[in-house]
């Protein structure tokens, strides 16, 4: 079932598709396909976490979560990837390559109107509940009683993270301006663009529930479900000094609707969360 809030976005995608099929034909020498890899960072965020297990059903409001975009070495320079690569420790290099924030996407621009394009995009980012002191509002039912109080969420959650990635896989639509066109780069050396995205999400939930000082329910798995989905919108810039290669930088906002997560050892229990995330991304584009 498609949520009502997604209907305007779907309508915009359809309008963009129709508009993109009409227009001036692209000139010779243009590149219409972009394959891209990027790194980036997501900003710390707050999320409501709703848990339902046993006789308990409660919400922890505005829980502060960290991103750890440069995990495992916490550096904007990917030393954890580069060092083992040069030492031919390929397994360690692959691990470091896929652990920080990263993403891929493929974009195809219409020949009939090269300002418009569509594609697929994958975004891998993380969220962690840290042990840093914080106080949040807790409402709902706990131990058979109605509660509305302030708590430290780490007293109830021994661990809460989506650390093998929130993992958005989205269908995207693009509009670009083609500026500073040359004979060598007929589609423009500078290409500012905007995009909108809609798709599924595959979060990897890591969760421990604490009762009487012991961990009683757990989750450590990818959570595939129709209610795990999301959307996004962004704006960025391609700098294309070469016909077959470009650099890009982009701001993107995503909304993660994670309402299909569960416990591994309690099929009837549920975990719900949804949150906005702000992203800054940069990377390479290979064009053909």
Provide a descriptive summary of the structure in words.
By secondary structure, the chain is mostly beta strands. The chain has one domain. It is 12% helix and 53% strand. The protein has helices at 7-20, 79-86, 90-98, 153-156; strands at residues 33-42, 45-53, 56-65, 102-109, 116-124, 127-128, 136-142, 145-151, 157-162, 168-176, 190-201, 204-211, 214-222, 228-239, 245-262, 270-287. The strands form 2 sheets. An 8-stranded antiparallel barrel has the order 1-4-5-10-11-14-15-16. It has a 4-stranded antiparallel β-sheet with strand order 6-9-12-13. Strand 4 and strand 5 (116-124) form a beta hairpin. Helix 2 (79-86) runs antiparallel to helix 3. The radius of gyration is 22 Å and the shape is elongated. The two termini are 37 Å apart. The relative contact order is 0.20. Residues 1-24 have low confidence and may be disordered.
Task: Write out key terms for the chains shown.
288 residues, mainly beta, 4-stranded antiparallel β-sheet, 4 helices, 53% strand, elongated, disordered N terminus
Please outline what is shown here.
With 288 residues, this protein is mainly β. The protein contains four helices and 16 strands. The chain has one domain (4-287).
Q: Helical proportion?
A: 10-25%
Question: How large is the radius of gyration?
Answer: 22 Å
Specify the number of helices.
Answer: 4
Instruction: Output mean pLDDT.
Output: 87
Strand order of the largest sheet: 1-4-5-10-11-14-15-16
Return the string of H and E elements. HEEEHHEEEEEHEEEEEEEE
Strand count, sense and barrel status of the largest sheet are: 8 strands, antiparallel, barrel
Shape: elongated
User: Helix/strand/pairing class, anyone?
Assistant: mainly beta
Strand count: 16
Q: Could you list the spans in which at least 5 consecutive residues all have pLDDT below 50? A: 1-24
